[in-house]
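Handout, tutorial session.
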Amino acid sequence: MLIKEYRVVLPMTVEEYQVGQLWSVAEASKRETGGGEGVEVRRNEPFTDVPLLNGRYSSGQYTHKIYHLQSKVPRIVRAIAPKGALEIHEEAWNAYPYCKTVLTNPDYMKDGFMVKIETMHLPDRGTTDNAHELTADLLGKREIVNLDIGTPQYLTSADTKPETDPTVFMSTKTGRGKLAPGWKNTVEPVMCAYKLVTVEFKWFGLQKTIEKFIHTQYPRLFSKFHREVFCWLDEWYGLTMVDIREIEDQAQRDLEERRKHGPVVGMRPE
């Protein structure tokens, strides 16, 4: 088991991020879906009586998605992967400001593979030492990785576009933008997404190698997504949660149409 905590500071409030993150998930899902691949939404509904974060939260929104990843993995993996190996199930319990997401591969690896992403959203600059209330044992195993959306450190050339570059973007609705070096220390408003990622891969002889490989993917994914959340600010700023639920319902219908009839789109492996 390998545990890393990715800290993403953002120039917005915790309340704003709740809307922006959900809007951006719907938008990013559409950009990654087509040609039989991408995101399939199975369920999106309220939940209650599910204890989260040591019982502090117990209700919110539950989603179950399947990610069809045929062209999202290296060619050699596609060549040898058996049926079901490239379909990842995602279950998420969003009890904002806390959210728990679990990725599995039940059709092939069953209980041999699990990625758990626990996110706590706090109004600070990434300075909370133990946002997830970890035990002393887990704190000893945790590695902290600070991500800066103002730099392309973990991105590929295909990920960096002027329209989603926080050092170029300026919001017309809020005046925020063009993040300069050192922005995390001075920007207002400010918040941090503390994303605790636990990876378990239980195949003997491959565990450490695969767990380390999976963790190499998250800095890119988190950096790219959160740069987009900020640079799409004018698209979602001012929306309500009622608006978001309507957008999610429409997105679910759009994703099904794109996955069945659209072309293959989205991120590719390097």
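The second record follows below. Compare its token runs with those of the first.
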Amino acid sequence: MSLSIEGPLNGIRILDVSTVIAAPFGATLLGDFGAEVIKIEMPNRGDSLRNIGPFKEEEPLRWPALARNKKSLTLDLHKEEGKKVLKELIRKSDVLIENFRPGTLEKWGLGYEDLKKENPNLIMTRVTGYGQTGPNSPKAGFGTPATAFSGFTYLHGYQDRPPISPSFSLTDYITGIYVAFSTMTALYYRDVNEEGTGQSIDISLYESVFRMLEFLVADYDQNKIIKERTPGLSGHSSPAGIFQTKDGHWMSLVTSSDTTFARLAEAMDREDMLVDKRYHTNVERLKRFEETNGIVADWIKQFTKVEIQRVLDQYGVPISPIYSIKDIFEDEHYKARENIVEVEHPRLGKFKMPGVVPKFSKTPGSIRSIGPDLGEHNDEILEELLQYSKGEINALKESGVI
């Protein structure tokens, strides 16, 4: 893999035949760092994400950022000519990312065993709700039900009310990170080992979240504790939670170690808590979680948002105001980090989207294009990459293949 000003993945070609969020987001992350990503969409219909809100009039507002750094090729994989074009692309590509239900591509003659005959070095990254194996594998896989299945939803909310699902597609985005991570791991193995070849990768939505719940597994295994839902962080660190300031702002504070609590106690002028056996360790404070949080809440209530931030920053205690998107747009740190960047949109003009993360010192990522119009790159890909003649391209258009 060569390096260039276009990013460390310049020279890697990825075919993205997935839809909506999880798998496409993983492809976008790889595209941010220079991979050439060809997004394959159904003719006249495209990715369902194009029709998911929010909108400005009829213009989708998620699409430009979530599909950035991609080229759009329309291709009907139900048709034999469409399958033929895909196989030609496979021969010239490094990665295929897909999120059809298990067995769908196999039914079309496009499973991993079929495609590796075209390119034994192909990495095939497969995203489903419940994985390629197991009794739930045939089920429809969407982020919200998969989040519930993972055990995550059970933990959130108040015990006298229904559990709360995340207010955005959290599981899909987490899975997208696994897509990028696992694809790069497979590429590394392929390219640095003499015996390295392609392989398939099996990623499920629910497992991406379940992997983060090791505390839940250990506590049930060893203590038979079924952790019930709470509205904030509990059972890990004390004090921790959401606290209100004198001027009505909400602040998030956590003390994840006894050392951090010692700094908080010093800031509150409550060093007595450091020798009091009820509070001197996190283990003891967790036994009195509400009581300890109450002491901190009463103290914070004496200060304004600006004052409490200044005081606890001085003592090295982790605290932050709870930001709305308006707060984020106005924040100087976000500006300094270029977390929000402005690009040109062909119909909306100036358009803001999240910047590229993480930041590389030598081979930074970039936003080279926003989410493409449907089929925008048909002629470029077919003519320049696959060497199709204009007559052949027109024939594919007339037959509805592209």
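Points raised in discussion: DSSP finds 17 helices and 13 strands in the chain.
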